[in-house]
Specification:
- By secondary structure, the chain is an all-beta fold.
- The protein contains no helices and 11 strands.
- A hairpin with a 4-residue loop joins strand 9 and strand 10.
- It is found in: Membrane.
- One of its GO terms (cellular component) is external side of plasma membrane.
- InterPro entries: Ig-like_dom, Ig-like_dom_sf, Ig-like_fold, IgSF_BTN/MOG.
C-alpha cells in the first residue's frame, strides 16, 4: 500500500503508517501496527519501545493479537509522548516505526466582551 511503510521479510510484513500520527494533548490515540498477512502473535514476544515511554497509559488490543494487530493504544497523550516509536516482534525479526506528532493549542478569553485566540502548532517531523 502506498500509504504504509513496509519492512519486507520471508513470510510476513509488519506494517506501520507512512505518515506521522497527529494527536492533541489529553486525547487517546492508537499507534497502528499489524502483520500482513494476519497471523496469531498471541504466543510471541512483542516490544514497543521509545525513550521515556508512556508509563501506565498504554494498552494492546489483546483480542486482536490473534489477527496480527499489534497496535498500541495511548491514553491521555502528553507533549512528552511525541517522538518515534518502535514496534518489534523478536520471534519474526520484524519491526516498524511510528512517528507521533503533537498539536498543542490554546484559546483564551481575557474579558467577556473581548476574545483573543492563541494557537501554537508544535509538530516536528522526526525522520
Amino acid at each position: 500500500q502506498a500509504k504504509d511503510r513496509i519492512k519486507h521479510t520471508r513470510q510476513s510484513q509488519l506494517i506501520g503508517p507512512l505518515q506521522p500520527i497527529i494527536a492533541t494533548a489529553g486525547e487517546g490515540i492508537t499507534l497502528p501496527c499489524h502483520l500482513v498477512p494476519g497471523e496469531n502473535v498471541t504466543p510471541m514476544t512483542l516490544e514497543w519501545t521509545r525513550p521515556q515511554i508512556y508509563l501506565c497509559r498504554s494498552s494492546l488490543f489483546t483480542d486482536e493479537l490473534k489477527h496480527g494487530n499489534v497496535s498500541l493504544k495511548l491514553s491521555k497523550v502528553k507533549p512528552a509522548d511525541e517522538g518515534r516509536y518502535r514496534c518489534y516482534i523478536p520471534d519474526k525479526d520484524e519491526e516498524a516505526f511510528i512517528d507521533l506528532m503533537m498539536i498543542i493549542c490554546c484559546a483564551t478569553i481575557p474579558k467577556p466582551k473581548r476574545t483573543s485566540y492563541c494557537f501554537l502548532i508544535y509538530a516536528f517531523n522526526r525522520y
